[in-house]
Amino acid sequence: MNEHSAPYEFHLPGVLRVGVGTHTLIPEEALLLGRRVLVVTDANCARIPEVAATIASLREAADAVSVFDAIPGEPTTREVANGLVAFRAADAEVVVGLGGGAVLDTAKAIAIMDQHAGTIGDYAGRDRFTTGRRPLILAPTTAGTGSEATRHIAITESATNVKMLITDWRLLPDVAIVDPLLVAGSPRSVTASSGIDAITHGIEAYISRRHQPTADLFALDGIEQLNRGLQAAWQDGADISARAATAIGALHTGIAFSNSSVALIHGMSRPIGAYFHIPHGLANAMLLPTVTAWSLEGAPARYATVARALGLTDAGDIPGYLARLGDDMKVPRLRDVVPPERLMAVAEKMARDAIESGSPGNNPREASVDDVVRLYDACARA
To answer: Is residue 139 classed as helix, strand or coil in its secondary structure?
Structure first.
């Protein structure tokens, strides 16, 4: 049986509303699902004019609207528990997530945990939920994580500092709304790291051992869109055409990896986020060139196709191109963010956490704990 005849499944959010101005449809979509709404966001996102206007419109249309915005950074089990308290205190029926990946992951966790006992940490791993979730609408304010269209959430266990990957098709929202206007105000640093994060999603989805034909289409188109629009969006955040390319590219690469998988880069980046509180997208961006160079020999034909999607002629050109892309947009190197001696002091523990997450098992070149330690060292010196 060849790779194109093996059975597979493919999932999307219930409804996708994509394009300039689609954020104005959020109240309409919310009222189709319930009359009492909890908006999940953060303090920075709440100041985005389109987000503020959306919350105001919800207040006019719905019976009750509460806002949970106590998400200071990468989400932990603490934020999920507090958000669940807010949802129940408001007697809410619908969760609307408006923000970056941390916000959207928290919104997904709140929606599913209202229907489950225990804590979100009890469901770490794959397909451990037993029933559905509360109605859920997600709208990203960054072009990066693709969380609006994925079955994954990444939550750090507060007590242990371990970043958990939780995977279940029930985490796909009822409605995903992708509006370039919501990302137009992203700072340059966020535009750069989240955009390279989205490229990472596309590359890893395509070279994953679990790749599949339909996800491949989304992965390659997403890489092409991001490669076309990212630097222009970084140069001029008001360039709506470039912002649209990055927003749609991030959506497509999110759809791709949700239906195939991520691989070694994501496995290595989660412990960096957990131990050093580095944003997920930035951690991926800093690891991408070095880990890609190491992985090339595992899937040369697939990496050659990725090279063409990036406008290159040879797979061997990919790592250098990705490094220059990061440098051009002033993405810091890992050594500039985490002192190498601090990184290497916990590198073996992080490597074991990475392997145990499962994602490295999807990499085309198999990595041992010792390989991952050496890769952390190489990234720290890059």
So the answer is: strand
